Amino acid sequence: MKSEEDEAPRRPAAFEIGQPLDLLSIAELEERIEKLRQEITRLEAARAAKQAASAAADAFFKK
Question: 0.70 cut: is pTM over it?
Fold first, then answer.
């Protein structure tokens, strides 16, 4: 049985990589840059966590 949430149309992303930038204001560009910086920080943290887990597994299984 589908819930109302399943049937609701999904909102498009606020922006997509590669979108034309001509119509954006300087404030909108700055906001987008800040959001992308935050996302890069989040991605780097996830990568570091995965690298640490991989290194721990490698160290465990090499003994």
Answer: no
